[in-house]
């Protein structure tokens, strides 16, 4: 509303400091008129009579009916300079009376100002005068009437605005703009009116609990007479919903207009009842339909991006124009219709694909969205575990006995585990629920195939700890061993792992093929930490044997310095404790006389130091370095003992048949065929074979290759006998099973000795708790029968399912 600058400066604007200042400046004679106490100056003052005109001059503000505003007069204004006058004020003979028309004249002036504010006209009186008029009326107990008159004039003005909102030919957007203009004008008007009637607001209103403040009165009038009208309210709410619907469809709308009108509904305290309920219902319908449609039309990554976009848009609306109290209900509505209703469909349709393709961004978004709804992460973790079990089982189970698949199994498991760890770290915020689900799932699928995963993990470790592996540094090898130990924790058949690991460790130690002693001991330390000292005691014994053998050979070589060695041979012996090392089948072969003599010398020396012990030579584990003279030059051949025996024959002739070699060496048939195959069909063919074929037959001839050439001086010929044969594999597995039988027997006796009597089902249950490896119920039943036959326990005579311990 246009006001003069002077009026604007005098506007209180609801500021208490300005109000107090105005009040203190204007209070003068009006308070004195109502005083009940006589006030005098000092007693030595002379008394001068006062004329009636002088009295009236002092109270001219009350006798002048013009505007009800006090004007101050000075009783000394007409005194002459230099004259001395003493003023004595006597008591009033009667209380001064207000003019009869004081209230009417004052209200007329105030009403005129209020109407000027309503019609945006200039106010004739200053705001200071208007404020003083209100104060005077309140001081003379006219507050209630003044409040009622003010309320009535404001109500009349508000009612006059209703007709413009009942027209049918106005569009909803124009309707909203008109509503906003009327609301903004009403607020400005009420601020101005309240500043004039501030004294009334701070005295009468504060002291009377039954009346509303002037501002609240203005809100109540607007609410009850305009927005409270059912047609106006419905058109306002529907218009707002139309704008929101258009914005959700991608159109640009006037957010400032919406913010102002929604703030109006909130200020009028009808936001929740009139708008929010309908808004949430419309939101629910919209996203329910969109969710159903888009879930069918789009793939999961696109759908998740759409949901995230919609949630962001709704948050923008909350930020720009919706009331903050709507946030919880609005977000819950969107999450329910777009996420909660489609959790299973999203997981079934897209999770496996996202995990298989390692879609990090999409998985991160899925986790973030699922974390917003109840049980979302629970369902996601269940589906995640199911994917791990399904995919892992495909890696482990080998129904076709594909050797290539088994060879790659451990590396695939490591890669699979690393990928899932990365997903959990980056996408799933290292959530413990997913970490535990991964562990349980790996343990489940890796033991779907008994024994084989344990065996293959042991062989994989062997391939990495042997010299010549592809690991670049010790740090990389150490990290790889840590990853392998994670897989090791999942397998139940740890005794199978131990058996194959021990066999491969023996080969690495005896043939000197270990890549690093530090790496070997590091792996041993990890196994000990994981399974305990009992698990690694034999493995540690193997290392101890190698160290003792090294020390003993130093002593032996010092002794041999005083003795001529047979044939100029240098002999190194490893003394192995049978209880620590794998079991090897002894093979008696024909050794050269020099070797036999050297063995006897060593045996005599050893038994002289360790009386009562027995030595058994293991020819299958021996290896040699041969010096060979070819026309092309001298070479050193690193070969096995069996290869050595075959090659030494060619010092006595150039051609030998298979049967002749077998008779001369006494090497077992299968071992001999593999040995000759390595010498005649490998990369370094120091002998040739007729006919030329890969398989060795009984009638084949073997000829010294005098044309052999090689760029290296020291040549290593693969030691075929060190490779694992199917028979060796079966033998290792059988030994594990035999050890398990002993453990099962011991566990049964332990349980029965403690319990004395036990039913079959309870005994089986106790055994499953104590045994650390998988075992079938039929195998347990066989061990129970064996113990009954050996009188460790007996059946109850009346109940065959009841067992008794036999002391």
UniProtKB/TrEMBL annotation:
Task: Tell me what organism the protein belongs to.
Answer: Mytilus galloprovincialis
Q: List keywords of the entry alphabetically.
A: Cell cycle, Cytoplasm, DNA damage, DNA repair, Isopeptide bond, Nucleus, Phosphoprotein, Ubl conjugation, Ubl conjugation pathway
Q: What is this protein called?
A: Cullin-4B
Q: Which family does it belong to?
A: Belongs to the cullin family.
Thylakoid recorded as keyword:
no
Gene3D superfamilies registered for this protein in UniProt? Cullin Repeats (1.20.1310.10), Cullin, Chain C, Domain 2 (3.30.230.130), Winged helix-like DNA-binding domain superfamily/Winged helix DNA-binding domain (1.10.10.10)
A GO CC term assigned to this protein in UniProt: cytoplasm
Q: Where is this region: Disordered?
A: 1-82
Domain Cullin family profile as annotated: residue spans: 452-680
Q: Which InterPro entries match?
A: Cullin (IPR045093), Cullin-like_AB (IPR059120), Cullin_CS (IPR016157), Cullin_homology (IPR016158), Cullin_homology_sf (IPR036317), Cullin_N (IPR001373), Cullin_neddylation_domain (IPR019559), Cullin_repeat-like_dom_sf (IPR016159)
Q: Which pathway does the UniProt entry assign to this protein?
A: Protein modification; protein ubiquitination
Q: Name one GO biological process term.
A: ribosome biogenesis
One GO molecular function term of this record is: ubiquitin protein ligase binding
Q: Keyword Iron on this protein?
A: no
Major subcellular location class: cytoplasm
Matching entries from PANTHER family are given as: CULLIN
Bias-annotated ranges (Polar residues): 1-22, 46-69
* Family matches, as SMART domains: CULLIN, Cullin_Nedd8
Annotated compartments: Cytoplasm; Nucleus
